[in-house]
Amino acid sequence: MRHSRDGAAAAVLDQDWDVVVVGGGNAALVSAMSAHDHGARVLVLERSDVTFRGGNSRHTRNIRCVHEAGTPYNTGAYTFDEMWKDLCGIGTGPSDEELADLTLRESISVPAWMTAHGAQFQPPLAGVLHLGRTNTFFLGGGKALVNHYYRTLRSLGIPVLYQAKVTEFEFDGDRCTALLVEHAGATHRLRTKAVVTASGGFEANIPWLAKYWGDAAYNYLIRGPEHNDGLVLGKLLEAGARSAGEEKGFHSVACDARSPKFDGGIATRLDCIPFGVVLNNRHERFYDEGEDIWPKRYAIWGRNIAYQPDQIAYAYWDSKVQGMFLPPMYGVFSGDSIGAVATQLGQDPEAAEATIAAYNAGVARDASGRFDPAGKDGVSTSGLAIDKTNWAQAIDTGPFYGIPMRPGITFTYMGVQVDREARVRREDGSRFANVFAAGEIMSGNILSSGYMAGFGMTIGTVWGRIAGREAAIHVRD
């Protein structure tokens, strides 16, 4: 059967399906291919149109997996023990250690599986991202990966219904028997033997975020599509699904404050923080900018800024480090003094200069000689209320630079609880017989309050494979 954009929508909606996958990003596509590999007739429902298909996965670049030796795409080994230590070192550690352990162990076979299903990778990257050893980069980025997977779906004969919005689940006891789907101005009842929900979190639903964050949520930027409003998640919770993960938990980064409200993607992220200082709108430093290398600590900065007054902050740096990180998409503010930059940013120039002068007074005299952007260099300040523990050079060499930042929310962690088979658990302790989940909608089973680069794609791929396989086995048995 051809994709619905070629006129097959009516035929698709009229059939009974073994497995219906709700979502169109990485976890959904992996689920669909996995279910097909295990003998199921599969339909994919993507809420977006063809142009913007793929959800947050369009904005990704890499995946983090265990590998015991170097590969053509990694510079060295990244063992289970090291990855487990990294995971335990972010936020408050894994939400469910058993499921986190399973995720890491299953990740070992992920790159080969991805390659067999159309993915392409590129040689490891060098530079200050520090990811060449631990992470594997997609050739062409996430959009290319998504396109490869959609081509694989087409070759396997798996239909995709675009602009299909799931509005209700029909249940008979613990079993989902049908979905109500809005498509082309009409509502259709779609019959299925099993469902995989892989439709993302609720980060684009600002009123839902505001339930936990208050009015601050209205100052957040949403890095992914406006469709990620948690509609499917909400319907599962209404149907008695047990929740997993912190209500306030999300993956968020520092984004350019000038970015669009929705779907700015990876290009709006800022990487300047470790090499400068960050002030809030009261001209105060509020966190150690040099706590750790970028892949382990970049995702704390969205949350850091979310707790600041008016959810805004400002990064300052000088010409010694300009060019050592990815350039901001919308350019930077610059001037021959900190005060000149502060004025352009809307900050008080004297207050900003005073804070940075106090920071400079805490910098070691030989800091520039020991500065090393390639790794944690131990070049720290001393005697400050908040010391910077790495890359702490004085900001004293013009021209000077600055940029405004807001929290950029990638995805929320609170979702549905699953078991080892990716089957959704119910509030009463039982499980739905035929409802499974993969990706961001169940990431709270693994993640608590921290994040490490590439791990969202790991969760989506590992649990997509599990959910698709188990849904197909359920139908077969």
Automatic annotation (TrEMBL):
Cross-referenced InterPro entries: CobZ (IPR012831), FAD-dep_OxRdtase_2_FAD-bd (IPR003953), FAD-oxidoreductase_2 (IPR050315), FAD/NAD-bd_sf (IPR036188), Succ_DH/fumarate_Rdtase_cat_sf (IPR027477)
Tagged with keyword Methyltransferase: no
GO MF term (any one): steroid dehydrogenase activity, acting on the CH-CH group of donors
Pfam families associated with the record: FAD_binding_2
Gene3D superfamilies reported in the protein's UniProt record: FAD/NAD(P)-binding domain, Succinate dehydrogenase/fumarate reductase flavoprotein, catalytic domain
FAD-dependent oxidoreductase 2 FAD-binding domain residues: 18-444
Taxonomic superkingdom: Bacteria
Keyword terms: FAD, Flavoprotein, Oxidoreductase
Entry cofactors: FAD
UniProt name for this protein: Tricarballylate dehydrogenase
Organism: Raineyella antarctica
Lineage: Bacteria, Bacillati, Actinomycetota, Actinomycetes, Propionibacteriales
